[in-house]
Amino acid sequence: MAAIIEVQDVRKSYHVGKVEVPALRGVSMSVEKGKFVAILGPSGSGKSTLFYILGGLTRSDSGMVMLDGVNFTELSDAERTRVRKSKIGFVFQKFNLLPTLDALGNIRIAQDIAGKNGTLDPAYFQRITQLLGIEKRLTHRPSELSGGEQQRVALARALVNKPAIILADEPTGNLDTQNSETVLTLLQQSNKELGQTVLMITHNPDAAEFADRRIYMRDGRIVPKDDYHLHPVG
């Protein structure tokens, strides 16, 4: 099966005062279309930096990033933004819901940002809200929803534009065990039933078990599973 994400020798450093701090030290990887992949690593491993580069939210210093056939490293900021809006759905640890909007409004805002206002596919929308179990909560504001329900709304917002790729950044970080399992199961279902490729970063090995494949990172590099488990996850 063809790769939908390809990363070749990606490097990224940050400057703290006069000190250069490497975050990625030559990362290469690929993700096949339609797979659910977890990138597992402790704090400081570089997984969040890789996430932001894959999402077009920051640039790498060098290397190549291909997303669904598009070379991100050759695009201008405006072009990267356009591709991001059309091809990627984001799920973050913080739900990032607007408190003044109800659940439906928070989902629809993703369409507004992508310039698809008024083009909602009713059948698809019904399918994802039923899949996520929020079809009866659409008129409620975030303050009237549980943490698990808020994360489901955030997931619906990520899915509503039918993106090819879902990027999830510690999607269960603010949830208890039961709600975490529910959200991870829903990510599995969106992957299998809706066909989205899911790439999730996490420090939690239990969360990573929900994925089809696990990639291990430490100190800015991808490492073999055996080497990763020689050290405790921080």
Work out the radius of gyration. 18 Å
In CATH terms, the superfamily is P-loop containing nucleotide triphosphate hydrolases
Oligomer: single chain
**Number of distinct helices:** 8
Walk me through the structure.
- With 234 residues, the protein is α/β, with parallel strands linked by helices.
- The protein has one domain (3-228): P-loop containing nucleotide triphosphate hydrolases (Rossmann fold, 3-Layer(aba) Sandwich), CATH 3.40.50.
- 34% of the residues lie in helices and 28% in strands.
- It is built from eight helices and ten strands.
- It has helices spanning 47-54, 77-87, 103-113, 122-132, 147-159, 177-194, 205-208, 225-228, and strands at residues 3-16, 19-32, 36-40, 62-67, 70-71, 88-92, 165-169, 197-202, 213-218, 221-223.
- A six-stranded mixed β-sheet has the order 6-7-8-3-9-10. It has a four-stranded antiparallel β-sheet with strand order 2-1-4-5, with helices on one face.
- Strand 4 and strand 5 (70-71) form a beta hairpin.
- Helix 3 packs parallel to helix 5 and helix 5 (147-159) runs parallel beside helix 6 (177-194).
- The longest helix is centred in the last third of the chain and has 18 residues, at 177-194.
- The radius of gyration is 18 Å and the shape is globular.
- The chain starts with a strand and ends in a 6-residue tail after the last helix.
- The mean pLDDT is 88.
